[in-house]
Amino acid sequence: MQSSSSPLPECSCLLPPIGAQSALFLDFDGTLAELAPQPDAVQVAADLVPTLTQLAARLNGALAIVSGRPLTDLDGFLAPLRLPSVAEHGAQRRLISGEIIRMASPDLQAVICRVNTLAQRHPGLRVEIKTAAVALHYRHAPEMEAVCRQAMDEVVRSTVGLELLHGKYVHEIKPAGASKGTAIEDFMAQAPFAGRLPLFAGDDITDEDGFSAVQRMGGCGIKVGEGATRARYRCLSPVALRQWLQRAAQDLTGRTSP
Ligand SMILES: O=P(O)(O)OC[C@H]1O[C@H](O[C@H]2O[C@H](CO)[C@@H](O)[C@H](O)[C@H]2O)[C@H](O)[C@@H](O)[C@@H]1O
To answer: Which domain of life does this protein belong to (predicted)?
Structure first.
């Protein structure tokens, strides 16, 4: 929880209701699924896909995943579901129709070369190359945080059209201007999201733009886990978040059943 010296207001641990007129935006890692030692070691809880399926139906499709992951990862973890999604921190957006809107992909060659060279020298580092972004993970070499940050910073400054993000034991390079907040705003301008009250749950600093966006639109941000946040609500863990989603799916189903 926040310390008393934090300038940010305390947020409530009582989660807001999910109603038939809500639009749900959900981050993946650390929010829907517990963090794992490696990106490909994430386990998806058995009840998650059935709950999301039921909720998406009850919200008339107004449920989207908002993630730093590539679309292929999200589809793999949530199979057979293929939800409207924000991928790679906003570099791609898949609409409910299945159409994918992609930001112009920057030239990542210099980035890839730099991070691969670093990772070859330090086996604790892990490089993740996506379609429009590159992540350098240092979870297993935390002492390398500053070295990784400096390398990523240098390459961003010498390449046009890139921006650096800092997540949980990861530095990521993505197209400049891509953000979860902007992507949520774009979804909220279109059916089936338009006119609904947006709720966004996320666990990381990279989700703060999304919290601000939904709260500007009269909705609520929900921070999962510890750490300072602009979100109005806090949920203690991914398990608690999944229980909140499951209860809402049951309540909405009861309300709409004949
Ligand atoms: O926006 P998200 O859905 O939260 O994705 C953010 C990044 O998540 C992944 O990395 C994080 O989760 C890994 C698995 O739990 C963990 O090992 C790593 O330390 C975390 O940083 C993913 O690998 C990245 O591509 C996402 O951008």
So the answer is: Bacteria
Torsion of CA 9, 89, 30, 85, to 10 degrees: 110
Radius of gyration in angstroms for the set of CA atoms belonging to the chain, rounded to a whole number:
18
Ligand 1 atom 23: residue of nearest CA: 39
Query: What's the pTM value of the predicted model, to 2 decimals?
Result: 0.94
Domains and CATH numbers, the chain: 22-103+178-256 (3.40.50.1000), 109-175 (3.30.70.1020)
Question: Burial code of 35-62, b = ≥16 C-beta within 10 A, e = fewer?
Answer: beeebeebeeeeebeebbbbbbebbeeb
Residues with CB under 6 A from ligand 1: 27-30, 35-39, 42, 67-69, 128, 135, 137, 139, 167-170, 172, 204, 206
Nearest CA to ligand 1 atom 5: 68
Tens of pLDDT, residues 187-244: 999 999 999 999 999 999 999 999 999 999 999 999 999 999 999 999 999 999 999 9
**Catalytic status, residue 153:** no
